[in-house]
Amino acid sequence: MSNEGPRLRQCPKGYAFAKFNGRKINFGRYDDPEAQRRFDDYRARWLLNGREPAGGAQGRPCQLSSPRPREPRILRDSTHRCVRRVLTQS
């Protein structure tokens, strides 16, 4: 495979990503061997689709990995007591 087109990169938080048609697609943790496989699969579908988004006609990226649950965080309420709650992803 040639070196043209998107390449797998690492963000400062340790995640693997690439930009396809200006859209950032995440592939999981950079140190996970599966991230390279997911990138290769997505890139192959992108190339076969004429360099169009592999997620479909609307250009939505595929969900390549399930989102990790958020860790509980300790917050303080208005009386400065510790409150433990799980933040939800939006």
Describe this structure as you would to a colleague.
With 90 residues, this protein is an alpha+beta fold. The chain contains one helix and five strands. The protein has one helix at residues 33-48; strands at 9-10, 15-20, 23-29, 72-76, 82-86. The radius of gyration is 18 Å and the shape is globular. The termini are far apart.
Tags for this entry?
single chain, alpha+beta, 5 strands, 90 residues
Strand order of the largest sheet: 1-2-3
Q: How large, in whole angstroms, is the Cα Rg?
A: 18 Å
Helical residue percent band: 10-25%
Put simply, the count of helices is 1
Order of helices and strands: EEEHEE
Based on CA inertia axes, which overall geometry fits? globular
**Spans where pLDDT lies below 50 across 5 or more residues:** 56-62, 86-90
| Secondary-structure class | alpha+beta
- Profile the largest sheet: 3 strands, antiparallel
Share of residues in strands: 25-35%
* CA(first)-CA(last) distance: 37 Å
The count of β-strands is: 5
Average predicted confidence as pLDDT = 74
